[in-house]
Amino acid sequence: ARALGDMPPSLASAPALAAATASSSSSFSASRASRSRTPASTSSPSILRHLASRRRDDGEASSRRRRARGAPPTAPRALENPFAPPDLSGDLLARIAEFALSTNLRAFDDVTAVVDASVFGMLGGRVDGVIITGARWASRKNLTCATARFEVGAAAIDPIALVTERVVKLREPARGTAKLVFTTADFGNFLSHPLTVAAMRSHAWPSTRAPGGFELVGERVALEDGAVVFEGRAVEGGGGREGGGGYRIAMRPKRAGDVGVVVECHRYDDDGSRARHPDLDAAVEAFFETLMIDLCGAQLRFRQLAIDERVAEVRLELALTVVAFPPPNASF
After folding, report:
1. pLDDT, tens digit (0-9, with 9 covering 90-100), for 167-224
2. Is position 301 within any domain?
3. Beta bridge mates, 132
4. How many domains does the chain have?
5. From 266's CA, which of 41, 172, 174, 312 has a CA 20 to 30 Å away?
6. Are residues 39 and 90 in the same domain?
């Protein structure tokens, strides 16, 4: 960050704003019933309403702003009015984050960003925490989930880029956790997604069992006996799929708190016979335990699996490293 004396007059006035508002913790959400990918370029103040205004124990003020459900995503104010005064509050960062994420999705029910940041902290590019949640997300390449929650702790951003360019630029990676809830159809989409398929092709599968590699198939996913069950296919050395049956893979969580999964693979032949293959068990376990998916700068690494058959949900907990905030209109 530059010294205040080097800043434009609009930024140099930020201390006055800071004196009036010592802290801002802001959240907002957007809902969209249509599958349109282009957010509205204008918004009406009538669709914004204050949900809460509270006073912290230390006397600092905070506010919460939320759009009504069904409203289209709203562009940050300065994208609508380039002459708008600069806003160095958590509200600006939250609005820009939500706006960018909504443009990355072809469909969603909800996108909400919550930012914990004081004005003084924002002047120095410091954010104390960010939580992003969503419901029924679908990306352009069909990565889908029932609910999503991404949370990072302290982060360092470029406040000048935030105010002048209306983009989130990180000075260093931010770390936290992600939690994704899948239906069986969502988990099938996850297995079939191009990023997951690319990871399968680079994974070290047993050469005696799958000399050309191995595919995890997302076409028929089910929950049975505390496991998520799906199919697998060995790939021949020339790239074709192996004939004569396939594999049934049952994946369960490890004990509560343990990282990783427990896998059982059985081969089913055309004559109805079946055989257990422990070497593939270990290979599939290693695939998930080392899996890293990069969503345009947001890197997700597998940690834990949970199965809830009562509501037919597969839940993934992942380690999150944000190297760069996904830009608007990213495709993943």
Report:
1. 999 999 999 999 999 999 999 999 999 999 999 999 999 876 667 789 999 999 999 9
2. no
3. 113, 150
4. 2
5. 312
6. yes
CB 2 within 8 A of CB 124: no
Do 26 and 165 lie in one domain? The reply is yes
130 and 34 both lie in a single domain: yes
9 and 153 belong to one structural domain: yes
pLDDT for position 208: 66
Task: Tell me whether residue 316 is in a domain.
Answer: no
If asked whether residues 10 and 58 sit together in one domain, one would say yes
Q: Inform me whether the pLDDT recorded for 27 exceeds 60.
A: no
Instruction: Write 303-309 long-range contacts (CB < 8 A, 24+).
Output: 303/177, 303/259, 304/253, 304/254, 304/258, 304/259, 304/260, 305/228, 305/251, 305/252, 305/253, 305/254, 305/261, 306/253, 307/223, 307/226, 307/227, 307/228, 307/252, 307/253, 309/223, 309/226
The whole-number pLDDT of residue 15 equals 42
The answer to whether residue 255 sits within a structural domain is yes
Domain with 154 in it: 4-181
Of 181, 196, 218, the last residue of a domain is 181
- Assigned domain for 194 exists: no
pLDDT at residue 76 is higher than 90: no
d(CA 61, CA 42): 28
| Under 8 Å between Cβ of 105 and 326 | no
Cβ(25)–Cβ(55) below 8 Å: no
162 neighbors 168 (Cβ within 8 angstroms): yes
Look up residue 81 and give its DSSP letter.
-
Q: What is the pTM of this model?
A: 0.74
Residue whose token pair is 């595919």: 215
Only one residue has tokens 């009504």, namely 68
Cβ-contact 98, 115 below 8 angstroms = no
**Does the pLDDT of residue 114 top 90, yes or no?**
yes
How far apart (Å, rounded) are the C-alpha atoms in residues 332 and 5? 42
pLDDT tens-digit profile of 286-303? Answer: 999 999 999 999 999 999
Place of tokens 């909800």: 110
Question: Residue written as tokens 């209306």?
Answer: 166
